[in-house]
Amino acid sequence: MTFRTRQAPSPTGYLHLGTARTVLYTKLMAITKGGQWYIRLDDTDQNRLNLEAVTPLLESLQSLGLEAAEGITLDLSDTYSQEYNIYQKGDYGPYIQSERLSIYHEHAQKMIDSKLCYWSYLTPEDRQEIQANKQITKQPINWYLESLSRTNQELLQTSVALALNDPRKPVLRYRLQRDNKLKCHDELLGDTEFDLNLLEDPTFLKSDGFPSYHLAHLIDDHLTKVSMIIRSQEWYPSFPLHTQAFIDYWGVQNLPKFLHLPFVLGATGNKKMSKRDGNVNIQDYLDQGFLPEAIVNYLAFLGWNPGGEKELFLDQADF
After folding, report:
1. Which domains does the chain have, with CATH numbers?
2. Which of 28, 49, 170, 318 is the most buried (most CB within 10 A)?
3. Measured on CA atoms in the order 28, 29, 35, 37, is the torsion positive or negative?
């Protein structure tokens, strides 16, 4: 089986230092495994969308030598996106997630038919009341029971087409099967056992019809034959959810491997790096004249030490 992995930056702003490091590690992993990697665009959060952010982001990656041979690109290709002024290349497109809505809706319908997902018609007032009660009970919310108590079973299983045109603006949630403990294996952190009773049903389709990360990742990583998912440890709390969803929908035999990279820490050393810790915009360093090779070498040592005295790793033979 060919090793495949990916990265999915969001078009919300500049290339963040932490994102650049994750892309670097992704490329290096693909190189060491003799495999493939690609870049897709996670533009499903329409409220934070910045159309003008995509080209600078790809330019920064290109300057660092971190462009991919597949996915979204600035290189001329057959598939052009006028909205973002970029191209797409590869056999598993579209690589822009907003262009894949019909795919997400198709699989969402299959999950509804299989009773893996349900529509929640809770009003903002309902959700506020439920969240307030959670502060008292200190217990995770069972969104399925809360939704069922305010409507009927048939409405929870209505079709995607009807629900998305309903003026009540429901959201589609994945129904997590509780009363179970799930052991998940991370390629870096090892095994962790999670109590599913402590989790809550996540949103899979938002009221605007766009998928959440949970659904988009579940569908796209399988259809593009991703064998390892490399991402930041901020997604570790969602690890059992994603593992269970993959098993429920695609089968345990199709479960990809996961590798969660540690955070890039700020000046205090006990929290994720933020803008308060200094400049985290990669392009600013390039504009100041820092050599791309120096930046890549710096990124490589964020969270990794090979031992020994060697400090420069500039060629493939160094890794």
Report:
1. 4-95+256-318 (3.40.50.620), 101-213 (3.90.800.10)
2. 170
3. negative
